[in-house]
Design goal:
- The complex is a heterodimer.
- Chain A is an alpha/beta fold.
- In chain A, 27% of the residues lie in helices and 20% in strands.
- Chain A folds into three domains: 160 residues, no CATH class; 167 residues, Rossmann fold, CATH 3.40.50.11540; 59 residues, no CATH class.
- In chain A, the strands form four sheets. Chain A has a six-stranded mixed β-sheet, covered by helices on one side.
- The two termini of chain A are 42 Å apart.
- Helices cover 55% and strands 0% of the residues of chain B.
- Chain B is globular.
- The chains are: A alpha/beta, B mainly alpha.
- Chains A and B meet through helix 9, strand 15, strand 16, helix 12 and helix 13 of A and helix 1 of B.
């Protein structure tokens, strides 16, 4: 925290970075619907937790919105068909942007269908008991749309001894380039409020706070004008700073509380949801529909028609990029934001529930030649960037001598959530975040072996 | 449309990078040192300039030699060696024999840096390692001071500068007598204070119209250059502040007890190499801790030790040893001042 921040009244957390936002290309563009691709790929493991289990068979006709897979456990959600069409395969292994191939349901779209959602039924959600409401949220296939894709209903059933009295709604969108949440807050404001009220009813929470970064004051004003009169929901501006939208940081900014190390927000009575998740809940639940599309920001140097697109879940990346057009020279295609997203090598990956953006970056030659790596000069820039107050410099030196045990035992490696701030500021161009990912993976493997 | 006809780049997050590199930081430190060097040349003339060139070139050559010997890619271009060379010259007396300056430069890089593994791995400030070596090796030469602003200084070397290698430099006493202004005694303000209890005017100290090492005399210029670096966030101002505050606080009780015998805090801050040390040497990133509490503690150790050495040691100046000792303590300081992390739980039970 710099001296100025200490005296400012702006709500924020300590440390963090200020990358260039690059949001101007898409912030003003209204959400537009993308056409349906000829073939949809619905991976069964799009969320954290157990993969879903297919309940359709090859050759079966499915209607848009129809459940095609059931949850594989408590921490799991069902899948719904994004299109009206016919199931071509139920267990083909497809590439994902995040790593190993996973089984997916492939659906051929009926070109002639008008793609109306027929699979629905109105319910009076206010008559439901909290338990049934939580069940309804699971049935909708809802996961955290901010990027983590954690099943939403799980956060509503905290472990024994904990209860949730505050719900925090994350409208920060601190990742550069992304503007989908910004547009959702402007265009789906009523649905967000409705979604929040449902979540509050499900956990009997008294208060909800929406946190919006102060570079989106139009969204803040829009939400302010539509808040319910009873004062149960409030909206607050927080400083525009990365990673403001990280769960732990936003809790700290708004409530001045900290989630205990290794714990979950429920330990301090809080559940955090993304605005996109709330908007979808407000839209889907009253008609008991399932999650079949989401807003994705497609932006970056290499995209000809950047924008915020409503994309059916399961649309191949290739189709999305064909629709928006690509320039000839680009270097990386990133699924998600440029700070935490992953580059993809294949265009045959699907837009899944957790993909908030597709960013196509300019080639390296734009910013001179490849950055040269230097040894750590102990400048301390990473220490004043790390939002968790870790010592990335020390962790990096330990990683280089492969002392992964000390990293975890002595320097809190497992508290790192890989936001990338240390790598961003490092003048020696050390791939610190990558070191930490490898160290964590190796520690996990060692633990499994010990068991 | 043919997508992906050419290979894409695969890379792990984050994909954005702040455009700042080590050589940019180092280059800026060199820029910040240049005004100090320029003042030094104005004050002490051609001898100071020659001394800077000799130490810097020796440092560069030594670095290149060690890179060659260890089969490492040449790291001469990263400017860190230039900093060492310039800083070293600035801490030496302006009339220091040039061949001894070359020895200091070689030792600074060889012993102070390369043997530890080069940039980023040195334990102590290389320039000070070089200076400490010549302080021990050539105790007379390194305490032979010449007056500032001597007439003809731009045309004529101070006679001791041009001593032949491995030869004892000529005595400068006669040379000084010839052109001394106001009866120069060959002593720095610190020595005057320590041995004769003569205090030098603060204004002269501020502006640098006094005898001393080549670059330590003008407090104002050093402070301005330091401010530039601090504003550009290429220097940790907290270390400098820690050094100065600790030095002042340590001096104060002695001064209050016996103002006749002990110097005032303001004299302590403005005299000798304290300002140069606090701004450019103590803040050397590699040798200083990074934790918030650590940098204050580290600064305080330097300030405290400097004053103790100055008041009670055999030497008139203690900045160099104070910084070297603090450099050595830095890993310890860092390990006891690890920051409290977000959400850290209180340790349960006693172990």
């Amino acid at each position: 925290m710099t001296l100025l921040e200490r005296f400012s009244t702006r709500k924020t957390f300590g440390h963090g970075i200020h990358p260039i936002a690059h949001k101007e290309a898409t912030a003003e563009l209204a959400i537009r619907r993308l056409p349906f691709a000829k073939q949809m790929i619905v991976p069964l493991a799009q969320h954290l937790g157990a993969p879903a289990k297919a309940i359709v068979s090859v050759g079966q006709e499915v209607v848009r919105g129809e459940p095609i897979a059931e949850p594989g456990g408590f921490v799991s959600v069902p899948m719904h068909s994004p299109v009206t069409g016919v199931v071509k395969s139920v267990d083909r292994l497809v590439a994902t942007s995040s790593g190993p191939k996973t089984p997916a349901i492939i659906i051929d779209t009926y070109a002639a269908s008008d793609q109306k959602v027929l699979f629905e039924g109105a319910v009076d959600i206010w008559q439901l008991t909290p338990k049934k409401l939580v069940h309804a949220i699971q049935d909708s296939g809802m996961v955290g749309l901010g990027g983590a894709a954690f099943p939403s209903h799980v956060k509503l059933l905290p472990p024994k001894g904990m209860s949730i009295d505050k719900v925090i709604i994350n409208g920060c969108e601190c990742e550069p380039y992304l503007t989908c949440d910004h547009r959702i807050m402007l265009e789906y404001t009523d649905k967000i409020i409705l979604g929040i009220q449902m979540v509050m009813a499900a956990v009997a929470a008294k208060r909800a706070i929406i946190g919006v970064e102060d570079n989106k004051s139009d969204a803040f004003e829009m939400i302010q004008s539509k808040l319910p009169k009873d004062g149960s929901i409030s909206c607050e501006l927080v400083e525009t700073k990365y990673p403001q939208g990280a769960e732990k940081m936003l809790i700290n900014s708004l409530l001045n509380k900290e989630v205990p190390s290794g714990g979950i927000p429920a330990e301090i009575g809080v559940a955090v949801y993304n605005v996109g998740t709330m908007a979808q809940l407000g839209d889907l639940l009253p008609q008991s529909r399932g999650l079949i599309e989401r807003v994705v920001t497609v932006s970056g140097y290499g995209v000809n028609k950047p924008g915020n697109y409503l994309v059916p879940i399961g649309t191949p990346l290739r189709f999305v990029l064909e629709q928006v057009g690509l320039k000839d020279d680009f270097s990386k295609i990133i699924m998600g934001g440029p700070m935490m997203g992953m580059t993809t090598a294949s265009l045959d990956v699907a837009i899944t529930k957790g993909v908030s953006g597709v960013v196509v970056l300019a080639p390296q030659s734009f910013e001179n030649e490849k950055p040269q790596a230097y040894p750590c000069i102990k400048c301390g820039a990473c220490l004043s960037a790390c939002p968790i107050s870790l010592n990335p410099s020390m962790l990096g030196q330990l990683a280089m001598v492969r002392d992964y045990g000390t990293m975890e035992g002595g320097y809190h490696l497992n508290d790192c959530f890989e936001c990338g701030c240390c790598t961003y500021v490092c003048p020696s161009n050390l791939p610190l975040t990558q070191y930490f990912r490898i160290a964590k993976a190796i520690n996990r493997k060692i633990k499994v072996k010990e068991l | 449309m043919n997508l992906l006809s050419k290979p894409v780049e695969l890379h792990t997050s984050p994909h954005l990078k702040k455009m700042i590199t080590v050589d940019q930081i180092m280059r800026n430190v060199v820029y910040a040192l240049l005004p100090v060097c320029a003042w030094s040349v104005y004050q002490f003339g051609i001898s100071a300039l020659a001394l800077m060139l000799v130490t810097t070139v020796t440092c560069l050559l030594t670095e290149a030699l060690f890179c060659h010997l260890s089969d490492k890619s040449n790291t001469v271009t990263d400017f860190s060696v230039v900093i060492t060379g310039l800083l070293l010259a600035l801490t030496l007396p302006p009339g220091f024999p040039l061949w001894m300056g070359a020895v200091a430069g070689f030792i600074a890089i060889a012993l102070g840096k390369s043997l530890f593994g080069g940039l980023g791995y040195n334990v102590m400030n290389p320039a000070l390692v070089g200076r400490a070596f010549v302080q021990a090796a050539f105790p007379v030469a390194i305490t032979t001071w010449t007056p500032a602003l001597a007439p003809g200084r731009f045309l004529e070397f101070i006679p001791s500068s041009l001593a032949m290698p491995f030869m004892r430099p000529v005595d400068t006493a006669d040379w000084v007598k010839e052109r001394a202004i106001d009866g120069f005694t060959g002593a720095t303000p610190l020595a005057l204070q320590k041995f004769e209890q003569i205090s030098t005017d603060s204004m002269d100290l501020l502006l640098g119209y006094v005898a001393g090492s080549a670059g330590e005399t003008s407090v104002v210029i050093i402070l301005l250059c330091g401010t530039y670096l601090a504003v550009r966030k290429m220097m940790d101002w907290r270390i400098s502040a820690g050094v100065l505050i600790a030095a002042a606080l340590t001096t104060l009780p002695f001064y209050l007890l016996d103002p006749e015998h002990y110097p005032s805090p303001q004299f302590m801050l403005l005299s000798g190499g304290l300002m140069l040390g606090a701004v450019f040497m103590a803040t050397d990133m590699v040798g200083s801790p990074m934790t918030v509490k650590g940098v204050w503690l580290y600064g305080a150790v330097i300030g405290f030790l400097t004053v103790i050495i100055r008041l009670f040691g055999g030497l008139t100046e203690g900045v160099m040893y104070a910084i070297l000792v603090a450099n050595a303590m830095s890993p310890m300081i860092a390990s006891v001042t690890q920051p409290r992390i977000y959400g850290q739980r209180k340790k349960k039970g006693k172990s």
